[in-house]
Structure formats: structure tokens, C-alpha cells
Design brief:
Strand content of chain A: 5-15%
Number of helices of chain A: 4
Number of strands of chain A: 3
Largest sheet of chain A: 3 strands, antiparallel
Oligomer: homodimer
Shape of chain A: globular
Helix content of chain A: 40-55%
Largest interface: A-B, 36 and 36 residues
Structural class of chain A: alpha+beta
Distance between the termini of chain A: 23 Å
Chain lengths: 110, 110
DNA sequence: TTGTTATACCTCGTTTATCTATGCATAGTA
DNA sequence: TACTATGCATAGATAAACGAGGTATAACAA
């Protein structure tokens, strides 16, 4: 099923912070991880991810460092900061509040 | 809690179709109903609702008719059409798929 | 009666997250 | 040698919702 892309707005940061809280990753890897875990409900593109990563570094939520892969290819890895972990906690709560509110309005009490 | 408004994008049509599937309503009433049911997590404004209602009528999802209240005040009531009910069904499914996907990525299996 | 608040509808311009499209470069493979 | 996958990046387009403003009537208090 292809879902309305507007629905995904506002949730992307939550997804990124979530996967990075488990493991440090490089951008291209995050895309694969998020798409795979969602069973391809999400089809995140580079044009979406990279600008968000840069903004998050700028906001102090993430740190990046360069590393070479086994093959010698350059990769830019990201790790979550303490501030990022706080953001994640807040965004998780926000997600619960939001979905709870929608479910109450549409009559799907959880 | 005030939630990030970007999160609500894409879900507004679902909310409107849902409340109208239960009962015919006028615009101002829908706002009160949606805000109240969500415990004010949503604070929908007229500037958001009215253009969407007009678009939905235009798309054949809703029909409107004028009626006077007990006090003699004019109101524009809306009712959902057969096409609107189909849309609602599709959007409910989309909502389930979307929230399921987010929950899998962030590690909150339902 | 005059002012204020709640009800009820409407529109226009702004905001902003994400997407599309495009670019560059390297590694692996057919 | 050409194509595909990997890996990073940016610029412009899109579109949903909001903010701010408008009009008009009803109810109520001063």
C-alpha cells in the first residue's frame, strides 16, 4: 500500500532519532533501515534525509564523523547526542499523544 | 501537551470524514467536536477547516445544505456521500498502515 | 443603548516539511 | 567498457495547514 506522503510529515525526525538511538549509522544505511523496517511503507529518499541530518547536527541533536568502509569508501556516520536523546523522548511522547488523539476522534479506542 | 503541527498533516481529512460519518454537522460544530474529542490535542481553526470542506464538496465527498438554527441563525450543514464513505474506509486503512509502520521503525510493536 | 463576547462563515498570503530532479564520485559487475 | 549500486549533496517545486484578517448576527451585561 502506498500511503499519502503528507501523513509522514512531522514523523521523520522521530524515525531518524529512533534508529540512531540503537546504533550509529551513515545516511544511506538509515534509508535502507527505515524503509526495510517499515516493510517499504516508507520510501525515504536521499533528498529528504540528508538535509534533515545536517539540520540535526546544526541543532546539536546529532554528531557526525567520517569513516572508511572495508572497501575503502568514505562514509559519514552519525551518532545521537544527549540532547538528541532528550528530543527522542519528547518526540516519542508526542507521537503517543498524537495517535491517541486521532484514534479518539475516529473512534478507534486503543 | 501541544504537539508539532506538522504531525497533523494528512490526517485532517480522516478526522472530518470520521465525525461526519456519525452525524451531519455544520463547520463550527465540527471544530468543537474534533477539538473536544481529542482533549484539545487538536486546536483546529476555521482557516483550516472551511477550505477543506469546500474542496471535499468539490470532490464529491461531501454535500452541503443550509439550515436555520433554533435561534434563526444560518448554518451550513455537511453530510458525507457514498464516495466520501469509500474515502473514509481507505483513509482509515491508510492510517493503520502508517501508524503500524512508524511503530515498527521506532520499536513499539503494538 | 452601547459595548463585548460567542457564534458562524469566509479568504488570502505565509510557512515549512518533504519530494523531485539533478549532480558528482567511486565500487562492483556483466 | 558500460551499467548498476553505493554514497553524499543541493536547489526548486509542491501542498497542507496556519495566521491574520474580514463580515455578520445573537446574547448579554453595563
Amino acid at each position: 500500500m502506498t500511503i499519502n506522503k503528507e501523513l509522514t510529515k512531522g514523523s521523520t525526525a522521530l524515525l531518524i532519532l529512533s534508529v540512531l538511538s540503537e546504533q550509529e549509522m551513515y545516511g544511506y544505511q538509515m534509508i535502507g533501515e527505515i524503509n526495510r523496517r517499515s516493510d517499504n511503507v516508507f520510501k525515504m529518499k536521499e533528498g529528504t534525509l540528508y538535509p534533515i541530518l545536517h539540520a540535526m547536527v546544526n541543532d546539536g541533536l546529532l554528531e557526525s564523523y567520517d569513516a572508511k568502509s572495508e572497501t575503502g569508501r568514505d562514509r559519514k556516520y552519525y551518532r545521537i547526542t544527549a540532547a538528541g536523546s532528550l528530543q527522542l523522548k519528547a518526540r516519542r511522547e508526542e507521537w503517543q499523544v498524537f495517535t491517541g488523539a486521532v484514534n479518539r476522534v475516529i473512534g478507534e479506542e486503543m
